[in-house]
Amino acid sequence: MEKNVNLTTNDWIILRMTAQAMETSEYQIFVAAYLGWYGKKPDCHQVDRFFGTYLSRGEIPAFVRHFTRHYLNEHPEYLRHYSAQQKTQHLAERIAFLLIVILVGLAILIF
Question: Whole domain around residue 14: which residue ranges?
């Protein structure tokens, strides 16, 4: 029986990063991971079972975790690109928050 590990935020991020780097869907990551782990192409019912568990309960199989980490270790350039995107997004969120605070402050002063 395949041991599943409860999905953490990092697991979800790593799965999404791998899907984006490979320009494919999360479902196709499950297919590729299964092939790499078991050495044979899965039938759709096998992947559907694992993927359904991931969607409904947030559990990710060990073979998918292994595949995503291995892929990103082999492609560190994507990690650098993702990190830069995260920093830009964080800065934009902080600027938006400050603008809201300023607008609320001005509204309080006016009224």
Answer: 1-74
